[in-house]
């Protein structure tokens, strides 16, 4: 640096740095490459190309010189002025590439613990390094701690490279973020990645698909359909059959959320055929589970069971915990509608444990909602309330509006069944309000049906008007409601 441009603080930083041996000075300069808010010995080891214990030792030397601070155990950061000073140091060739490769390996390791292998970009070369986690809990903890660092790293790597490693990183982060329900967080980074990927056909198609998938669950359904239709066309242009199959499935989910149940069923059937032709067991499991779900909404329970039993068999054959968990949630709901509460409870308890082990909070909350309804059917009102409250806490923490609607409805039913009808009505009204703002027609109909039944218990005249509206909504979208007989009586 030119001494004429140095501030007193800069000179003080330089004095502290000059007093250190060469190894910690090198690490300090490398820290200028870190785009995120903090860093660990593991990430610093990648920058250095050295073992983790060596990186940890050097970080302690820098901390003693007040050039980094350990703000929580094992995690370090720099004051903004110190960081600016580090970024002004000469860059070391290869260090940035090592940092990106390390994070790709770590995200791959996280994804491996989730036991779900969706559509992924084909890779041209083997990983530059390997990262391991002892179990899924450690993998999830790493992901949660590194979330902001990952998004900052990806934003920069998408623009400056190295490519194609940056695209592989985008693909891997997409997979784990969407699995964990980090949809808004993914959208915030996916849009700039898409802009950087223009002209890279498969990456562009995958980003369009992922943006569409995230928009579905954020209530931005028409936007989701537009992105998914664009993704489908992009997959076809670059002749990627696996991408086409996955996008057909995602588009089915978007149409399902729009209340177009028949069109969604057609797309899921088409996705199943494509995934079968592609030889993708995971794709087949997804399509079968979605077919089971839409047939449940249509009241076609025999068809639903047929698809879901096949999904469960396939998950066992492939040893897919994720596939088993999803199939068991859906089977639990269908078994309840078929008058088999014991079978429903068995499936839902198993699903809840599996999703919890996989770190899939969305799946866990869905299973808890089902368990609440089943326990209410069995007269176990205290347990029904506990299940619904646990599901509601997860749904609100994850900002998952669809599950929040289901949890509020289940909690209202549990309270009404135990005699707290006024409190139940308040919860049902919350569910209807959220469903009308965020939910699909099916969610609106289910929430409204719950409110109708509770209003009927109170003998309020509003019940008959709302019951007629709810029946009209359900019939307009071919939705079959579990409470249909009660609504007909009220209407």
TrEMBL record:
TPR repeats: 245-278, 285-318
Keywords linked to the UniProt accession: TPR repeat
Keyword set includes DNA damage: no
Keyword Iron: no
Gene3D superfamilies xrefs: Tetratricopeptide repeat domain
PANTHER family xrefs: HTH-TYPE TRANSCRIPTIONAL REGULATOR RV0890C-RELATED (PTHR47691:SF3), REGULATOR-RELATED (PTHR47691)
Name of the featured protein: Transcriptional regulator
């Amino acid at each position: 640096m030119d001494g004429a441009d140095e501030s007193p603080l800069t000179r003080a930083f330089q004095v502290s740095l000059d007093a250190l041996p060469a190894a910690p000075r090198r690490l300090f300069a490398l820290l200028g490459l870190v785009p995120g808010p903090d860093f660990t010995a593991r990430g610093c080891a990648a920058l250095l190309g050295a073992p983790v214990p060596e990186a940890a030792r050097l970080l302690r030397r820098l901390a003693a010189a007040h050039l980094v601070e350990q703000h929580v155990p094992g995690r370090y950061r720099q004051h903004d002025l110190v960081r600016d000073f580090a970024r002004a140091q000469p860059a070391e060739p290869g260090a940035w590439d090592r940092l990106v490769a390390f994070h790709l390996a770590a995200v791959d390791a996280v994804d491996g613990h989730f036991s779900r292998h969706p559509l992924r970009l084909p890779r041209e070369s083997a990983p530059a390094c390997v990262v391991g986690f002892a179990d899924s809990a450690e993998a999830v903890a790493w992901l949660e701690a590194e979330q902001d660092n990952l998004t900052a790293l990806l934003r920069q790597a998408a623009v400056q490279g190295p490519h194609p490693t940056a695209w592989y990183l985008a693909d891997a982060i997409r997979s784990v973020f969407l699995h964990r329900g980090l949809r808004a967080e993914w959208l915030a980074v996916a849009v700039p990645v898409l802009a950087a990927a223009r002209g890279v056909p498969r990456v562009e198609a995958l980003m369009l698909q992922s943006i569409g998938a995230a928009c579905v669950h954020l209530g931005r359904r028409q936007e989701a359909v537009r992105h998914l239709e664009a993704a489908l066309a992009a997959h076809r242009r670059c002749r990627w059959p696996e991408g086409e199959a996955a996008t057909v499935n995602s588009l089915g989910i978007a149409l399902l959320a729009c209340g177009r149940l028949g069109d969604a069923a057609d797309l899921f059937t088409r996705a199943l055929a494509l995934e079968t032709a592609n030889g993708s067991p995971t794709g087949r499991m997804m399509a079968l589970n979605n077919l089971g779900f839409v047939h449940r909404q249509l009241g076609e329970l025999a068809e639903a069971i047929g698809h879901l039993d096949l999904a469960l068999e396939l998950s066992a054959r492939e040893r897919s915990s994720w596939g088993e968990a999803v199939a068991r949630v859906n089977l639990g709901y269908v078994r309840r509608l078929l008058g088999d509460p014991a079978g429903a409870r068995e499936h839902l308890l198993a699903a809840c444990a599996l999703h919890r082990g996989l770190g899939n909070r969305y799946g866990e909350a869905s299973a808890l909602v089902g368990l609440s309804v089943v326990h209410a059917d069995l007269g176990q009102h205290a347990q029904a309330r506990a299940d619904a409250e646990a599901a509601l806490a997860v749904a609100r923490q994850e900002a998952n509006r669809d599950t929040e609607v289901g949890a509020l409805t289940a909690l209202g039913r549990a309270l009404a069944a135990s005699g707290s009808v006024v409190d139940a009505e308040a919860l049902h009204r919350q569910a209807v309000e959220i469903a009308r703002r965020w939910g699909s027609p099916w969610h609106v109909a289910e929430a409204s049906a719950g409110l109708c039944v509770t209003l009927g218990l109170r003998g309020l005249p509003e019940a008959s008007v709302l019951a007629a509206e709810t029946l009209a909504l359900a019939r307009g979208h071919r939705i079959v409601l579990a409470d249909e007989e009660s609504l007909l009586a009220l209407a």
